[in-house]
């Protein structure tokens, strides 16, 4: 029951992006920067981006010492270097495109807490710095910062050393997404929310994107020359054959803590735990390694065991002996694969995929969006 006017003027685009998270909006912005006259539309299935883009901890990170050491056990050195370089490049593009003030970017220190089980990693610190040296103009990526431990007040029976990452910062996730949305709109990009895509069809001369219209009880068929899939953890709902595994992340945030003794961002246990100071509160998340199978899901639900363990970590290690109340909790859905490499490829002649951010969407999302935009323009 669409009108003649709608069919003539409101359904045709040059580029349609599915997913309005960091990657999708970045891809749309890159398309408009390179092809300013093109008609670009972003489709989002919910009112707000629903995966991890608006639910992450706001770490502008390249990876902790133990995480990179773990990667070196499963990846060749060149692949590890390329991944770290991708994170660095992505963060530079994000900051240049939006500006530090608009995304609340700060560098108040990035640290990894080293427990008794991880002290072995300290012996590998010089080697890792040497491997990464060319990426940082010969400057060390990691340095010991044990002298700051007493001031931070972490439980000394568990935390034995502190490693500073010299090239990481933090940002305000809400401000970052607001800035991305504003830039997209100001660039002339259409963003339509509440538009779940049921299917796509590549006809070689163009692509149809099908969105059910619940009021009219019929399908709306948008068309585009190229379609870019940026649905990360939810990709298999649209493309079930793609190798994308969801990974849910549990997060909590405390009430304001009087005299909170630290600022900055912190990693533990290969990055599986992470916390930061935020507006005088402690934001703490992670623990997926405690229940990999249970957290391999796209369901937005609390994992009671992991939420409990986060509270235990908060009260026994991060703020030992302090009476701290929990103000809020949430979950976010990330996407992983057999390797840490993102999935970036031509799915069909006119459909490009940029998904599977591996929990590093803040760092690499801008570059992945730019890359798939160039692929769409050049294919």
Question: What descriptive keywords fit this protein?
Answer:
alpha/beta, eight-stranded mixed sheet, globular, FAD/NAD(P)-binding domain, D-Amino Acid Oxidase, Chain A, domain 2
Could you outline the blueprint of secondary structure elements for this entry?
Elements: H1 4-9, E1 12-18, H2 22-34, E2 40-43, E3 59-60, H3 65-74, H4 77-98, H5 100-103, E4 110-115, H6 125-132, E5 142-144, H7 149-152, E6 159-165, E7 169-170, H8 173-186, E8 190-192, E9 199-202, E10 207-213, E11 218-229, H9 235-238, E12 245-254, E13 265-268, E14 273-278, E15 281-286, H10 292-295, H11 304-318, E16 326-336, E17 343-348, E18 351-355, H12 361-378
Parallel strand pairs: 1-2, 1-11, 2-8, 4-13, 11-18
Antiparallel strand pairs: 3-7, 4-6, 5-6, 9-10, 10-11, 12-15, 12-16, 13-14, 14-15, 17-18
Helix pairs in contact: 2-8, 2-12, 4-12
CATH homologous superfamily caption of the domain at 4-54 and 175-242 and 341-378? FAD/NAD(P)-binding domain
Count the strands? 18
Distance between the termini: 35 Å
Total helices: the number is 12
The value of Rg in angstroms is 22 Å
Regions with little confidence, pLDDT below 50 for 5+ residues? none
Q: Which second-level CATH architecture of the domain at 4-54 and 175-242 and 341-378 applies?
A: 3-Layer(bba) Sandwich
CATH topology of the domain at 4-54 and 175-242 and 341-378: FAD/NAD(P)-binding domain
Strand percentage: 25-35%
Query: Can you tell me the CATH class of the domain at 4-54 and 175-242 and 341-378?
Result: Alpha Beta
Shape: globular
Class computed from helices, strands and strand pairing: alpha/beta
The overall average pLDDT, rounded, is 97
Order of helices and strands: HEHEEHHHEHEHEEHEEEEHEEEEHHEEEH
Helical fraction equals 25-40%
Largest sheet: 8 strands, mixed
């Amino acid at each position: 029951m669409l009108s003649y006017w709608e069919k003539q003027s409101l359904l045709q685009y040059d580029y349609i992006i599915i997913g309005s998270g960091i990657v999708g909006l970045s891809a749309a912005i890159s398309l408009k920067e390179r092809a300013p006259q093109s008609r670009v539309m972003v489709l989002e299935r919910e009112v707000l981006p629903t995966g991890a883009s608006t639910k992450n901890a706001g770490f502008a990170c390249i990876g902790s010492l133990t995480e990179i050491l773990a990667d070196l056990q499963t990846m060749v050195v060149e692949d590890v270097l390329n991944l770290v370089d991708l994170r660095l490049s992505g963060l530079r593009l994000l900051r240049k495109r939006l500006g530090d003030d608009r995304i609340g970017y700060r560098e108040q220190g990035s640290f990894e807490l080293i427990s008794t089980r991880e002290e072995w990693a300290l012996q590998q610190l010089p080697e890792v710095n040497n491997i990464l040296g060319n990426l940082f103009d010969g400057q060390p990526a990691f340095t010991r910062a044990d002298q700051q431990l007493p001031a931070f007040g972490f439980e000394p029976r568990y935390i034995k050393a502190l490693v500073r990452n010299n090239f990481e910062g933090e940002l305000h996730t809400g401000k970052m997404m607001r800035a991305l949305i504003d830039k997209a709109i100001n660039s002339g990009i259409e963003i339509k929310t509440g538009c779940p895509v049921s299917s796509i069809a590549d006809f070689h001369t163009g692509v149809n994107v099908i969105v059910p219209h619940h009021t009219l009880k019929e399908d709306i068929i948008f068309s585009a020359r190229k379609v870019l899939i940026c649905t990360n953890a939810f990709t298999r709902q649209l493309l079930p054959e793609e190798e994308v595994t969801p990974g849910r992340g549990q997060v909590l945030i405390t009430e304001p803590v009087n005299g909170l003794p630290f600022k900055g961002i912190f990693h533990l246990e290969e990055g599986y735990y992470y916390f930061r100071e935020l507006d005088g509160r402690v934001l703490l998340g992670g623990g997926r390694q405690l229940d990999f199978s249970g957290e391999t899901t796209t369901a937005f639900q609390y994992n009671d065991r992991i939420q409990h363990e986060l509270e235990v970590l908060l009260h026994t290690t991060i703020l030992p002996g302090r009476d701290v109340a929990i103000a809020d909790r949430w979950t976010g859905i990330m996407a992983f694969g057999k390797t840490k490499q993102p999935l970036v490829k031509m799915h069909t002649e006119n459909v490009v995929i940029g998904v599977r951010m591996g929990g590093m969407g803040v760092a690499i999302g801008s570059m992945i969006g730019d890359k798939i935009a160039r692929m769409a323009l050049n294919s």
